[in-house]
Amino acid sequence: MGCRQCPRACDVDRSDVSSVCGMGSDMRIARIAPHFFEEPCISGTRGSGTVFFSGCCLKCAYCQNDSISHQNKGRVFSPADLAESLRKLTETGVHNINFVTPTHYADRIMETLRIYRPPLPIVWNTSGYESPETLKRLEGLVDIYLPDLKHFSSRISALICKAPDYFDFASKALIEMRRQTGVAQYDENGIMQKGTLVRHLILPGLTGESMKLLNWFKENMSDTPLSLMRQYTPTSGIHIQGLDRRVTDREYERVLSHMLALDLEGFTQEKESADAVYTPAFNHQDSFL
């Protein structure tokens, strides 16, 4: 049977042919290390133990991790290799194990966790573009879902991430994630132990999209924390008109005011977060344990 782990449902044998994600059957990983730039309830004081996977089933034109999501830079790991790295990562004292852009390797990650299940919360850090079948297979393995909620209209999602069906899948996926994890649970230090935390990145010129997404979120997931992000940083290769600048103060305040008017709880970002310094280093000496 071909690969159907994400909504693309390429149905190709990845041992012979790469699918839309750009990856074959081998796991390729760009970074394994503590990471301190997630939300406070994820990074805490000791960092989130992140595993950045190469490739991606979305093709977002503005991706800040372009070198790994589009150019597929990284090293090949077997499930046994990754299991050993997770042991080492756990020993650093991180608060959780954070799988970043993991969807196209769901099968291999499940195999890894059968070899070694860290005694820490498992975070599934995703674009939100997930298939219901894959999510149901993850039930009981994932403690925390950390999905994006990117686009509302099919026209915008087709233009920006080549997925006109993005919202159709993401909206159902987020509801399934919330069903699996229940209401967010935290330890005595405010570190999330179980739950779903949804992220939305405001894009320049698209505040109307953001407000529509917040309206949907209020109607369907109002008891779930929301992280409203203003860190959009245009990459040098962006070719879509309007996405070649940062979000203005006025744009951010418009969406933030709407979030507050809807009485949604969660996290916000300072203006200084829109800086390339917050993009992790990949393929450097400190990228792997």
**Class from helix and strand fractions:** alpha/beta
Count the E strands: 11
* Overall geometric form: globular
Corresponding CATH architecture: Alpha-Beta Barrel
Helix content: 25-40%
Question: Average pLDDT value?
Answer: 92
Please count the helical segments: 9
**Order of strands, widest sheet:** 3-1-2-4-5-6-8-7
Low-confidence stretches: none
- For CATH, the homologous superfamily is named as Aldolase class I
The sequence of SSEs as H and E is EHEHEHEHEHEHHEEEHEHE
Question: Measured on Cα atoms, how large is the radius of gyration?
Answer: 18 Å
CATH topology: TIM Barrel
Level-1 CATH class name: Alpha Beta
What proportion of the residues form beta strands (DSSP E)? 15-25%
Compute the separation of the termini in Å.
34 Å
Largest sheet: 8 strands, mixed
- How many domain units? 1
List the helices and strands and how they pair.
Elements: E1 27-35, H1 40-43, E2 48-53, H2 66-69, E3 75-77, H3 79-91, E4 97-100, H4 106-115, E5 122-126, H5 132-138, E6 144-147, H6 154-161, H7 166-181, E7 185-186, E8 192-196, E9 198-201, H8 207-221, E10 226-229, H9 249-261, E11 266-267
Parallel strand pairs: 2-4, 4-5, 5-6, 6-8, 9-10, 10-11
Antiparallel strand pairs: 1-2, 1-3, 7-8
